[in-house]
Design a protein that fits this description.
Oligomer: single chain
Number of strands: 14
CATH class of the largest domain: Alpha Beta
CATH architecture of the largest domain: 3-Layer(aba) Sandwich
Helix content: 40-55%
CATH superfamily of the largest domain: Glycogen Phosphorylase B
Length: 409
């Protein structure tokens, strides 16, 4: 089959959906399928198009068996209006590139942005092929819960677009079974929905020893208990809670806080931890260093703001677990992600935005290193079974082939 993958972010971007979509595309290509990716010029980390692509409108290259067609987009740093312009410009240039891809069997698109569903629809009509819309989060609901989107007219417009995309899509794949109820409430029949979880590359991220770790040596972290957050530092994580909890652990002389990443919340973290000698703040690291970065931790953090666990899944959890480290997650009780942590015996779940509970959980693991190690072993075993790249790509392959067969029928 020939899959047209339409994604805002793709290799070499390190954040957002880029690693997931890159692994999916390359996994399908390794299975003998043809995959063409239409994506934006790399811009996610720096808030601007990277120098190698500046001054271009389109570009083409091949990487690990995948044909990549990159397009220009408006990539400024800024707030909601800048983000909307970013999405709108990519929608237009992606459409121009996508309709030129020949001999497509199926179109696959992860959210965000929601407007890419219109590009899917256009290609689907022109090429007479089905399209699958992949929900990595729930928009506009997530934006409304965060307070990022409050204008009632805009909310109604996005909700109408959401219903339109869901109605026109031949199939929808979701990364959390909790999303199913959201779709059913919007009139999507259950047979159009497939639950396929996200994955992590368990061959790339493996349980490495902390002894002799480069990050621990470089930042004087040997013989310390490292609490680590690594990933996109956005509003949805509620990282203020991490700071509040950390300040309750002043009596733990050997505890260190390692915060790694970039995003809207980075400036707040820089201010809050500027004079803290026990804190280490690093920018986003090269993906090749990720296994060693995760191995520098004794425990990994996966916080979310209250109300967000039903609209997105903190994918960083899978990397922490693959590294054989316990995770402390700030999630509502009964959420899909929270239940996974509990079922896997891979860490502790605390209420979101509850600094006291977070500090208590970290203090518990600091005081019982054997329990922390047992959780890490269980975490690794769980992701190998349920969230390895091969397991999940197999599910996507079967789902896409089924959608194509139904379209031909």
């Amino acid at each position: 089959m020939h899959v047209l993958l339409l994604a805002l972010n793709y290799w070499p971007d390190k954040l957002g959906n880029a690693p997931l979509m890159t692994g999916l595309a390359e996994g399908l290509a390794a299975r003998g399928h043809r995959v063409t990716v239409v994506c934006a010029f790399p811009h996610h980390e720096k808030g601007r198009i990277e120098d190698a692509y500046r001054g271009k409108l389109f570009d083409r290259e091949t990487h690990n068996g995948v044909e990549i067609r990159r397009v220009w987009l408006y990539a400024p740093e800024g707030g909601a209006l800048a983000k909307m312009a970013n999405y709108a410009s990519f929608t237009l240039t992606a459409l121009a590139a996508a309709v030129r891809v020949p001999d497509v069997d199926v179109v696959f698109t992860p959210s965000p942005p929601l407007t890419l569903g219109l590009v899917d629809q256009a290609v689907s009509v022109l090429r007479r092929v089905p399209f699958v819309y992949n929900l990595q989060d729930l928009f506009p609901e997530a934006a409304v819960r965060l307070g990022v989107l409050s204008n009632q007219k805009a909310i109604r417009a996005f909700e109408a677009l959401e219903r339109h995309v869901y109605r026109k899509a031949h199939h929808l794949s979701i990364i959390s079974d909790a999303f199913r109820g959201h779709l059913l409430d919007r009139g999507v029949p259950d047979h159009k929905i497939s639950y396929i979880p996200n994955y992590t590359d368990t061959d790339f991220i493996t349980p490495l020893p902390s002894e002799g770790n480069l990050f621990r040596k470089t930042h004087a972290l040997d013989d310390t208990f490292v609490i680590q957050f690594s990933g996109r530092m956005g509003y949805s994580q509620g990282l203020e809670t991490v700071i509040e909890a950390w300040r309750q652990l002043d009596d733990l002389d050997d505890a260190r806080l390692m915060m790694v990443g970039d995003g809207q919340a980075r400036e707040m973290l820089d201010r809050a931890l500027a004079d803290d000698p026990r804190a280490v703040l690093l920018p986003t690291q090269a993906r090749s260093d990720l296994p060693h970065l995760l191995a520098a931790a004794d425990v990994g953090l996966a916080p979310l703001r209250a109300g967000m666990a039903g609209t997105c899944i903190p994918s960083k959890m899978f990397g922490i677990m693959a590294a054989g480290r316990p995770v402390v997650a700030g999630l509502e009780a009964g959420s899909d992600a929270g239940l996974m942590v509990e079922q896997a015996h891979s860490g502790l779940v605390v209420p979101p935005e509850d600094a006291d509970a977070l500090a208590s959980a970290l203090r518990r693991l600091h005081g019982d290193r054997a329990e922390a190690r047992r959780m890490g072993v269980s975490a690794r075993a769980y992701v190998e079974t349920h969230h390895s790249q091969d397991v999940v790509v197999d599910q996507y392959e079967a789902m896409l082939q089924n959608v194509i067969a139904q379209g031909r029928g």
